[in-house]
C-alpha cells in the first residue's frame, strides 16, 4: 500500500503553496500549520513533508519553530527540507523534531557535505531530493538546470547508501494535472530497492491509485488537498 504524505510548505510561518516553484505564484491556505498537521493526523496520516520555503530562498534553516510546534504537538513522522546547507542546519532540524531531512541542491553542488551527512546520521535520516525536468536534475528552487541525468544521479547516491528519494517532476508540480507516473514506473523498474516518493501533479485520488497500482512506495500531495480535489475523508477511507 502506497504511503500518502501531505506537504506543508511554509513562508512567514504560514501554510502556502507555489505553482511550479514560483514564489510570485504563492497562495496562503492557513495561518496555522499546526492546525493543518493535526487535521492530517486525525485522518490516519502518519508522515508529513514539511518544506521551509523561506529557508530554501535563504540557504539556511528559517522556520524551525514551525517544525518544533508540529513535532511537539503531533505524532507525525516529519521529513523536513528547504535550504539545509550546513551541519548546524541539520542539528537545528533534528533538535526541533525532524525525523528525516531532505537534501536536493546540496547533493548536486556539495556532494562531499551531503555524503558526510549520510555517514554521520545514517541512511534512514537522509532523503535524496531529485527535482527533474525532462529527466535532468534541476536545483536552486528549480531556477537552475544541470547536465545531470536523473538515473545516473540516483545510482551515484545509491552507491553511497541512499535508500529514499523524493522525486519531483517540475513540469507537474502545483498544476493539478496528474503525475509523471511513467517516470516513477521507470525508476522503480531500474531501482527496485529504492523507496521512491513521487511528488508533483497529484490532482485526484485516481492519481494516487495509479501510483499504488505501479508499486510506487509513497506520494506527496499538497495542493489537491488544499483546493478540495482530494478530501481528508477520501484519504482516510483509502488508508483503511
Task: Give a written overview of the molecule.
The chain is an alpha/beta fold and 240 residues long. Helices cover 38% and strands 30% of the residues. The protein is built from eleven helices and twelve strands. An eight-stranded parallel barrel has the order 1-4-5-6-7-10-11-12, surrounded by seven helices. β11 (195-199), α9 (205-213) and β12 (218-221) form a beta-alpha-beta unit. α1 runs parallel beside α3 (64-73). The protein is globular.
Give keywords.
single chain, 240 residues, alpha/beta, 11 helices
Largest sheet, order of strands side by side?
1-4-5-6-7-10-11-12
Strand-pairing-aware structural class? alpha/beta
Average of the residue pLDDT scores: 94
Number of helices: 11
Residues in helix, %: 25-40%
Distance between the termini: 10 Å
Characterize the main sheet.
8 strands, parallel, barrel
The oligomeric state of the chains shown is single chain
Could you tell me the number of beta strands? 12
Low-confidence stretches: none
Order of helices and strands: EEEHEHHEHEHHEEEHEHEHEHH
Detail the topology: elements first, then pairings:
Elements: E1 3-11, E2 14-19, E3 22-30, H1 33-42, E4 47-52, H2 53-58, H3 64-73, E5 77-81, H4 87-95, E6 100-103, H5 105-109, H6 111-121, E7 126-133, E8 136-139, E9 144-149, H7 150-158, E10 164-169, H8 181-190, E11 195-199, H9 205-213, E12 218-221, H10 223-226, H11 232-239
Parallel strand pairs: 1-4, 1-12, 4-5, 5-6, 6-7, 7-10, 10-11, 11-12
Antiparallel strand pairs: 1-2, 2-3, 7-8, 8-9
Amino acid at each position: 500500500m502506497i504511503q500518502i504524505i501531505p506537504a506543508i510548505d511554509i513562508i512567514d510561518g504560514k501554510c502556502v503553496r507555489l505553482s511550479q516553484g514560483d514564489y510570485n505564484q504563492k497562495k496562503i491556505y492557513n495561518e496555522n500549520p499546526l492546525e493543518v498537521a493535526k487535521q492530517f493526523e486525525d485522518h490516519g496520516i502518519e508522515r508529513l513533508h514539511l518544506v521551509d520555503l523561506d529557508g530554501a530562498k535563504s540557504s539556511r534553516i528559517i522556520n524551525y519553530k514551525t517544525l518544533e510546534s508540529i513535532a511537539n504537538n503531533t505524532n507525525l513522522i516529519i521529513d523536513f527540507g528547504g535550504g539545509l546547507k550546513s551541519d548546524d542546519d541539520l542539528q537545528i532540524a533534528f533538535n526541533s523534531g525532524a525525523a528525516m531531512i531532505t537534501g536536493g541542491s546540496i547533493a548536486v553542488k556539495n556532494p562531499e557535505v551531503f555524503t558526510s551527512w549520510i555517514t554521520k546520521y545514517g541512511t534512514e535520516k537522509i532523503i535524496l531530493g531529485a527535482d527533474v525536468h525532462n529527466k535532468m536534475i534541476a536545483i536552486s528552487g528549480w531556477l537552475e538546470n544541470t547536465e545531470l541525468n536523473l538515473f545516473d544521479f540516483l545510482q551515484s547516491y545509491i552507491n553511497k547508501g541512499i535508500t529514499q528519494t523524493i522525486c519531483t517532476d517540475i513540469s507537474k508540480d502545483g498544476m493539478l494535472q496528474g503525475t509523471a507516473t511513467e517516470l516513477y514506473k521507470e525508476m522503480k523498474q531500474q531501482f527496485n530497492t529504492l523507496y521512491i516518493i513521487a511528488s508533483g501533479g497529484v490532482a485526484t485520488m485516481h492519481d494516487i491509485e495509479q501510483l499504488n497500482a505501479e508499486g510506487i512506495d509513497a506520494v506527496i500531495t499538497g495542493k489537491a488537498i488544499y483546493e478540495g480535489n482530494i478530501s481528508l475523508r477520501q484519504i482516510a477511507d483509502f488508508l483503511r
